[in-house]
Write a structure and sequence with these properties.
The protein is α/β, with parallel strands linked by helices. Helices cover 55% and strands 12% of the residues. It has a five-stranded parallel beta sheet with strand order 3-2-1-4-5. The longest helix has 16 residues. The two termini are 12 Å apart.
């Protein structure tokens, strides 16, 4: 196994109970135990922080719980954060071709750029790009 790119839909599952949370946790363990890195876009951290906030906003988590979750996110030491800015042009082309939001297209652009195993829990995204980007797999297939 080598480094693995994960999108925000996977990272969020490390902190918020969702469908496939056990799979996301297993991926984290698998990659970490092998001494490899988990790669994320800088944007993914913002998206996960927003998901943590949403849990509080919806009354599903206390402010203290939200702070604790964000602290856990910030303390992940095996995350390698890639800047999104350099990927804006290819992401736009991907977004235009596959009718995907730039947020999702940035993940696909990074997966294409790094040529490493890339994992998403976003089934519509996966279905839209899987033929042209076979290194992107669904979390449930990890």
């Amino acid at each position: 196994m080598s480094d693995v790119l994960v999108d925000s839909s996977v990272v969020a599952k490390w902190f918020l109970p969702e469908t496939d949370t056990p799979k996301a946790e297993q991926l984290l363990i698998d990659v970490t135990l092998k001494g490899n890195r988990l790669v994320v876009l800088d944007l993914a951290l913002v998206e996960v922080a927003n998901a943590i906030w949403k849990q509080h906003h919806r009354g599903l988590a206390s402010a203290a719980d939200s702070r604790q979750q964000l602290q856990k996110l910030e303390s992940l030491t095996n995350l390698y954060v890639e800047p999104a800015q350099r990927l804006l042009q290819p992401a736009l082309e991907i977004g235009l071709k596959y009718d995907r939001a730039i947020y999702d297209a940035l993940f696909v652009a990074l997966a294409d750029d790094l040529k490493i195993s890339s994992v998403t829990a976003d089934e519509p995204l996966h279905n839209a790009v899987k033929l042209d980007f076979p290194n992107i797999i669904l979390l449930r297939d990890w």
